[in-house]
Amino acid sequence: MSSKSDQKKLISLVCPTCHSILWIDPKLEAVIKVEKGKRPKSSLDDLLMKEKEKKEKADLRFEATAKMARERRRKIEKEFEQFLQNLDKEED
Description:
This protein has two helices and three strands. By secondary structure, the protein is of the alpha+beta class. The chain has two domains: 4-35, no CATH class; 41-92. The chain has a three-stranded antiparallel sheet, with no helix packed on it. The chain is elongated. The mean pLDDT is 87.
């Protein structure tokens, strides 16, 4: 068991990623205890802004995909027309 004097020698660090508190014993060079951190709460405005950005990105991806599909269709139609023209020339 650890006494109060042992606890004073522990070092506490806050993880910048998950906000957990790590209690480290420098003498043992080991993590003794981990307290799960609380994530900072986002405001409603922040959440709405994130959702708006996600929607805009999705709209841009959809539009780019639709444009590529239109271009591909035009190319295929053009190639088909050329094929039909070549076929008519061969029949004559």
